[in-house]
């Protein structure tokens, strides 16, 4: 009885750990550039994002990546509006599209 439980319990806990969503990353963990404040964050396959990606000629390897639309850089420690984000603060791997779109985004906590 206990031997079956000793096998089943670790397997169940491993599945639970994989299925549990992780909380937002702390802002200090963003090493790919400035944290972005994006009006919306959605899947690259969403109609709005897919249309913008196509019009800019961006080729994505992962169409399930999260992207930020209409983004501006913010500072974590700063003065004034540059340190605040009333929309979606994110850390993205590619911010090179002039604020129109940021690619590979992960939500962060400011």
From TrEMBL:
Gene Ontology MF annotations: structural constituent of cell wall
Coiled-coil ranges from the UniProt annotation: none
Position of the signal peptide: 1-19
Superkingdom of source: Eukaryota
Subcellular location: Secreted, Cell wall
Keyword Secreted belongs to the record: yes
Keywords: Cell wall, Disulfide bond, Secreted, Signal
SMART domains assigned to the protein according to its UniProt record, in alphabetical order: HYDRO
GO CC terms of this entry: fungal-type cell wall
Family note: Belongs to the fungal hydrophobin family.
Entry protein name: Hydrophobin
